[in-house]
Design goal:
The complex is a heterodimer of chains A (281) and B (256). Chain A has 11 helices and no strands. In chain A, helix 3 packs antiparallel against helix 8. In chain B, strands 5-4-1-2-10-9-3-8-7-6 form a 10-stranded mixed beta sheet, with helices on both faces. In chain B, helix 3 runs parallel beside helix 5. The N and C termini of chain B lie far apart (40 Å). Chain B has 2 domains: 178 residues, P-loop containing nucleotide triphosphate hydrolases (Rossmann fold, 3-Layer(aba) Sandwich), CATH 3.40.50; 66 residues, no CATH class. The chains are: A mainly alpha (281), B alpha/beta (256). At the A-B interface, helix 7, helix 8 and helix 11 of A face strand 6 and helix 3 of B.
Chain lengths: 281, 256
């Protein structure tokens, strides 16, 4: 009897702690949405539609397509997917340029002294300021937008890669040298893994930058994309549509960051483990 | 096996670390290098490994002048936590140097298993270094060196960062692997006790700019025992002989 009682108590305790951790994690977000809903309904302003209305409108905008297309509407294919492709294309380009270039500069003190002032200067240019010149050089198609995203988001990756490859532990380098591990292998086996935590930190920052630049690039001289839709909705006074775009962007940013962290956790589990160990001992 | 002639090293013209160091190491010996701090022990060891180019003198390993890291030599650093690669497992760490040797995968696996067994860490191959204690990590570093099958094993203050009990175990391990793998061992230490206990010969360096003050043969019988050997009259005498040399300033002021 008594053991059964303890079992039930324990089950309750477990359920309670699950609810508690859920409440801690998402409670504030849910509460804010409820407050927003209530306040928006109370105010009745056409500028601030309640979230329920935004959600309803978003469903018609993007999820009213035929079943064989997973209910995705034309707008998804005309705006959302092109935006995502530009975003991923620009960011991928930033990674493909930033990491190898960063390794090259980080491993050579001379090269790093030579290019560092130029890099710091270029980095200080706000990406959107280059839109006019990019339009002249590259036109108004996706090439211009992808280039802008890549240019604006390459800096955290490049600078973190330089920093990461420059600060490889000298004991590790001595070790691989003493074991006569060939030069090219030192790069793959030591320098790159040692720099990876910093490189990933840079990639995550630049992913957030890429989302911003994607929207900005679509506000200018564009004919499609999420940014274009938001601006167009504002011009046509479709304020709920405008809010839908904003919420979608938040969702995209949140999801990309979440996916990135999952990927990073898988690849850099050793780093968290080693750091956790160092922190506790 | 190893011949050092008039080794001389200065980091800058004003900062002369080693003035004139000469000694030989015979195959199969365990030789310790001791000396006051700052006497260039680690610099000397790194030069033996070909990691530093000394400003003067020659180092010959197996008859050939050392220029760059020679073949057949492995090194164990004091900072095991930094010398083991945290992103790969114990097996991965031990295998890494072997990948670039011309040996078969089977031979590679055999050597990893054998060296882990020698340091009593069989079954820990899939762990990451940071999941192990300090003493275990240093044993992994030793296993990595053993799997490489060097003729000469260099150790730089290998036991300075572990606790006393672990240190005693590791000291006995060194003598055991010398016999099992038939290698020559040169180690740098600041601990006189340790140098006497471990070595066949102790090379005593002076303060910088350093020279060889003395080479002390330690003819205490083996196998040695942490408690019995350290209590032997012979051990105590050798230890105080070396301690006096290191403590006395290198000069003539001690002579009346």
């Amino acid at each position: 009897m008594s053991t059964e009682g303890i079992g039930i108590d324990r089950r309750y305790a477990r359920a309670f702690s699950a609810i508690q951790s859920f409440a801690v994690r998402y409670g504030l977000g849910i509460a804010l949405v409820i407050v927003w809903e209530y306040a928006a309904r109370k105010a009745g302003s056409i500028f601030f539609p309640p979230p329920s209305e935004i959600l309803h409108r978003a469903a018609t905008l993007w999820l009213s397509g035929p079943p064989q297309r997973l209910f995705l509407s034309d707008s998804v294919f005309q705006d959302v997917i092109p935006s995502l492709l530009r975003l991923m294309g620009g960011w991928a380009l930033a990674v493909l340029i930033g990491v190898p270039l960063g390794i090259l500069i980080g491993r050579s003190r001379n090269l790093s002294d030579l290019v560092n002032p130029a890099l710091q200067f270029l980095r200080a240019i706000p990406g959107p300021a280059l839109i006019p010149i990019f339009i002249i050089l590259l036109g108004t198609e996706s090439t211009m937008r992808v280039t802008l995203i890549a240019f604006g988001s390459v800096w955290p990756i490049l600078l973190n890669t330089i920093e990461g490859t420059r600060t490889v532990d000298p004991v590790q380098l001595d070790t691989v040298q003493a074991f006569r591990i060939p030069r090219h292998a030192q790069l793959w086996r030591i320098v790159l893994p040692a720099a990876l935590p910093k490189i990933f930190a840079g990639m995550r920052v630049s992913l957030a930058l890429a989302v911003i630049l994607m929207v900005v690039s679509e506000l200018v001289a564009s004919t499609n994309g999420i940014g274009y839709r938001i601006q167009n909705a504002q011009i046509m006074f479709l304020l709920t549509d405008m809010w839908c775009g904003i919420v979608l962007l938040a969702l995209i940013g949140y999801t990309l960051n979440w996916l990135f962290l999952k990927f990073e956790g898988r690849l850099l589990g050793w780093h968290r483990g080693a750091r956790g160990r160092a922190a506790t001992s | 096996m190893l011949a050092v002639e008039r080794f001389h090293h200065a980091y800058t013209p004003e900062q002369l670390v080693a003035a004139n160091i000469s000694f030989d190491v015979k195959a199969g010996e365990i030789v310790s290098i001791v000396g006051p701090s700052g006497c260039g022990k680690t610099t000397l060891l790194k030069s033996l490994a070909g990691l530093i180019k000394p400003t003067g003198g020659t180092i010959r390993f197996q008859g050939k002048v050392v220029q760059g890291v020679p073949d057949g030599l492995a090194i164990v650093f004091q900072e095991y936590g930094r010398s083991l690669l945290p992103w790969t497992t114990v097996n991965g760490n031990i295998e890494l140097p072997l990948r670039y040797q011309s040996i078969t995968p089977d031979e590679c696996r055999r050597r990893v298993a054998e060296s882990l067994q020698a340091v009593d860490l069989s079954g820990f191959g899939e762990r990451y270094p940071w999941q192990l204690s300090g003493g275990m990590q240093q044993r992994v570093a030793i296993a990595r060196a053993l799997a490489y099958q060097p003729k000469l094993l260099l150790m730089d203050e290998p036991f300075a960062s572990v606790d006393a009990q672990t240190r005693a175990d590791l000291e006995d391990l060194v003598a055991a692997v010398r016999d099992q793998f038939e290698i020559t061992i040169v180690l740098v230490t600041h601990d006189i006790d340790e140098s006497v206990y471990l070595s066949d010969r102790v090379i005593v360096l002076s303060r910088p700019p350093s020279t060889v003050l003395a080479q002390v043969d330690i003819d205490i019988s083996r196998p040695r025992d942490q408690i019995k050997t350290r209590a032997m009259q012979q051990f105590v005498e050798k230890r105080s002989e070396i301690a006096q040399m290191i403590r006395r300033p290198s000069g003539s002021e001690t002579h009346p």
